[in-house]
Design a protein that fits this description.
The structure is a single chain. This protein is mainly alpha-helical. The protein contains 7 helices and 2 strands; from the N terminus they run ββααααααα. It is elongated and about 55 Å long. The model is unreliable at 1-19 (pLDDT under 50).
Length: 141
């Protein structure tokens, strides 16, 4: 029984502890193998990938993305998904903790602008501003 990963509780859900993804993927092309397993609906790989905050050193991807880049990618995904102000605030706080400044955070919105479209940029801007703590109320331009 000592070999089974411990479970942890988060927001009323029990989530199995993350395993080192390299133990799940024994292949000379780990990215390809990970995508193959996810395509095949490998639940253990999916749980590992979907962990909100995998511990440092728990996966092959740790060496590929710095904490700053990973944080900006998460923020970009939330922006693209039309996330709530609360979710954006979570990402902003993670960004600040990773040493990312407000200009870089707003830069994410600019960077994904052409992919998400003008309307999504306009809709997201006030939520991102509120998440950062900016007051952007206006009486017209």
């Amino acid at each position: 029984m000592g070999d089974a990963p411990a479970a942890r509780s988060h927001d009323h859900h029990t989530i199995p502890a993350e395993r080192d993804i390299t133990t799940l993927i024994a292949d000379d092309q780990p990215a390809r193998e990970l995508l193959r397993r996810l395509t095949a609906d490998d639940q253990e790989c999916a749980r590992t990938v979907l962990a909100l905050r995998p511990e440092p050193g728990t996966g092959w991807f740790d060496a590929e993305l710095t904490p700053q880049v990973l944080t900006l990618v998460r923020l970009a995904a939330l922006v693209a998904d039309d996330a709530s102000t609360t979710s954006l605030r979570w990402a902003v706080e993670l960004a600040w903790n990773a040493g990312i400044d407000d200009d870089e955070i707003v830069g994410v919105l600019i960077a994904v602008g052409s992919e998400i479209g003008a309307q999504r940029v306009v809709d997201t801007a006030p939520r991102l501003a509120a998440a950062i703590g900016y007051d952007v109320d206006f009486d017209g331009l």
